[in-house]
Amino acid sequence: MRICDICGKGVQSGHNVSHSNRKTKKTWVPNLQYKKMEIKGENVRIRICTRCMRNQAKVQKVRPVTPKAKKTTTKK
């Protein structure tokens, strides 16, 4: 299924219209990419459209996977 996991964008259909006004069926598919993200503490591989990658407002809830840094604790 060609659907973005973030925004739900999917395949759209319509017509190619020639100069003589003949119509043929056409489909437009979103530019989907696989990306590893951390969602609710889990590393997940999701399909995400390039528009959502650029739009920080939609992607700010989902952080890219980064290597875990060692936690240092200071004793008082």
Describe the 3D structure.
The chain is mainly beta and 76 residues long. It has a domain at 12-64: Roll (Ribosomal Protein L24e, Chain: T). The chain is built from two helices and five strands. The protein has helices at 50-54, 56-59, and strands at 12-17, 23-28, 32-39, 42-49, 63-64. The strands form two sheets. A three-stranded antiparallel sheet has the order 4-3-5. A two-stranded antiparallel ribbon has the order 1-2. Strand 1 (12-17) and strand 2 (23-28) form a beta hairpin. The model has no long low-confidence stretch (mean pLDDT 82).
Compact description:
With 76 residues, this protein is mainly beta. 12% of the residues lie in helices and 39% in strands.
